[in-house]
Amino acid sequence: MSLHYEQFELGATFSSRGRTITEADIVQFAGLTGDYIEIHTNVEYAKAGPFGQRIAHGAMIFSYSLGLMTQLNLLNDTVIAFYGLDKLRFTRPVFIGDTIEVAKKVVEKTEKQDGGLITFETTVLNQRGETVVFYIDKMLIRYAHRP
User: Fold this and answer.
1) I need a surface site. Which of 19, 45, 103, 137 has the fewest CB within 10 A?
2) What is the pLDDT, as a whole number, of residue 147?
3) What's the mean pLDDT in 55-75?
């Protein structure tokens, strides 16, 4: 069941299930976006690169983080708008076979006329608990009872 603005508490944390990144994910993302940069799609090129193998697209991992949190149904019925994104950072590579999960923390609440604005610190972690992506996202959420 989705939460209304009033039900989010400062400091509350939420975690997703894991999702393993596959070669098919990278191929499909490249096809959907047209991003065929060789560090993602060319095995031989990537072997000679800084990571020694292909890495997942950062934008794909960010997109998957949105999907993983959607599966928790925290906001699906109460979100009004994805309000903004700040401080997006890709801090470590994600490789084929890595498993990611998402942790969100409520860091700010602001009442607006059309709904309540929730600010989250969002961290995407790999299977070793290392941060691979970090960002601050803001969501405009319906009030349970209009103030």
Assistant:
1) 45
2) 59
3) 96
